[in-house]
Amino acid sequence: MEYLSARRRHPLAALVALLIALAATGGLYAALAPTQRAQANPAQSLAIDQGKRLYDVGCASCHGPSGQGSHNGPSLVGVGAAAVDFQMGTGRMPAQQPGAQVPKKRPVYPQPQIDQIAAYVASLGPGPAIPNPSQYTPGDMANGGQLFRTNCAQCHNFAGSGGALSEGKFAPELRGVSPKHIYEAMLTGPQNMPSFPDTTMPEPQKRDIIAYVTSATDPATFPSYGGLSLGWLGPVPEGLFGWIFGLGVLIAASIWIAARTAKARKK
Amino acid sequence: MTHQDRNAADHLPESGKPGKAVDPFADPGLPAHEPRRQDIDELAARHSERVVTMFFLLAVVAAFAFIACYVLIPKSKVVFIFPWGHVMAQNFGLGGTLGIALLCIGVAAIHWARTLMSDVELPAERHPIEAPPAVRQQVFDDFRQGAYESGIGRRKMLRNAMLGALTIVPLSAIVLFRDLGPLPERKLESTAWANGKRLINMNNDQPLRPEDIAVGSLTFAKPEGVQESDANFQEVMAKAALMIVRIMPNNIKDKQSADWGHQGILAYSKICTHVGCPISLYEQQTHHVLCPCHQSTFDLADGGRVIFGPAGHPLPQLRIAVNGQGYLSALGDFDKPVGPGYWERSA
User: Fold this and answer.
1) Do B92 and B83 form a contact (C-beta atoms < 8 A)?
2) Do A145 and A219 share a domain, yes or no?
3) What is the pTM of this model?
4) Cβ of B288 under 8 Å from any chain A Cβ?
5) Is B94 in the A-facing interface, judged by CB distances under 8 Å?
6) Which residues of B touch A163 (CB under 8 A)?
7) Which domain holds residue B282?
């Protein structure tokens, strides 16, 4: 102890203390964080049971011990397995911090555990189930484009690049979103997105929209015709680019031409 | 003379001897003309000539390349070009060659002007704008004599008749403005919605039932009888566009708004009351609708009230009910004109 206290004013003492604190926090987190091990089990009741355990560790602090919600998170009764699969499959849940909107990130849970939690949440009340692949196989792209412009483009932009909403909220970019998650988002209306249930947008139309979105956001099928797309964000960034870089280059070129004398005697 | 004085005297101009007034900021005049290499060296001039010619020829070559791109490159061919990524080969070729052609013409013109055209400075000294007094006097005298001889000062009736004719004749052209289009009359106040018209889903052309509309969903509707194949479809929908939302009835703050809906189903105009942009950026948790043009924000849970932005009127709401067959139908037109305000708008 004397050895340590004698060196407590050493220039590197603060650094060492910081490293010890970081290692302790990280170690504790690694020890207590939800395990990444998959625990798949075909039995539905067992899945619900496993899901309940995972739920108690990872979700209950915000959504309440039995999914009834709290002031930190909405009730999950009746949201259905599709909502859980979307929120956790895109990494939005578990949320890192409260805010205007929970952004997508790398999924925290592996898919088998997501399925278990989804099974548990689905047992809380009837809601939309996780779709099977035949429900979200891409359909008619042309019809999908028309439906997309009617129902989706106002927020997600004509090319699926996303856009700003009020008070820090935003409609996310659709590039790289899997057909299943697009389907689930339309069905469940995550966060502030309105839902488009099968009663007003039948399933074939959802498949048409998926066909359009996956095609329009894929550079291989929908290249940038003019070269520089500037993020497909429309006239504002294009104008900004034109004014700043286009005019900037012209002004710089004029200055460069005028700065060099054409006279024989250089001064 | 002290040391300091001598130092101060060093800073005076050479000619600045005491007793002789010299302007320290005298106009130096134009510098002597400096020739360019091309002015004195015929070889350099010929070299410049060749460079200019080469750029003009490059422009011609690029123009032929432009034609070749148009003819030879397949329209749908996609190539990867760093740093642009995947681009349409023909578009890229057309833009690139045309850009090179125009740039070459510009470079040739500038090089020609800078190296071969005359660069002798030709000063044009300024002169007073005012005419000499004799000329001014002459003009005034002529004017007075003309005014006297025409009798415009003495014959008042003649003068007034002339002024009247010169005013009325050009103003008569105002009636031509009538040809700019028919008057809007009362068309701005009414839409295609009317009592008993069912709400038709824009997605599948089916009439909507209340059980179709889930809480938190967003649906777009058109009035019954309006077909997309109609010649004036866009014109009709520009006013009649409707968005339908469903809000938990206990979340609806405006009593009248709740009464005008059906069990939380509310139908609002999709046209912003600021300058008429279509708005449907609906946030289902806050019940706010945002206009993408100027960020006007409306609270659909509070009668379409404006809570942010430049819009001057709340979003008009359509009174709806369920008809005998169980379909959602309108109870009349919007009670207020949809879209932006205009001069004759009553409220």
Assistant:
1) no
2) yes
3) 0.72
4) yes
5) no
6) 281, 292
7) 190-330
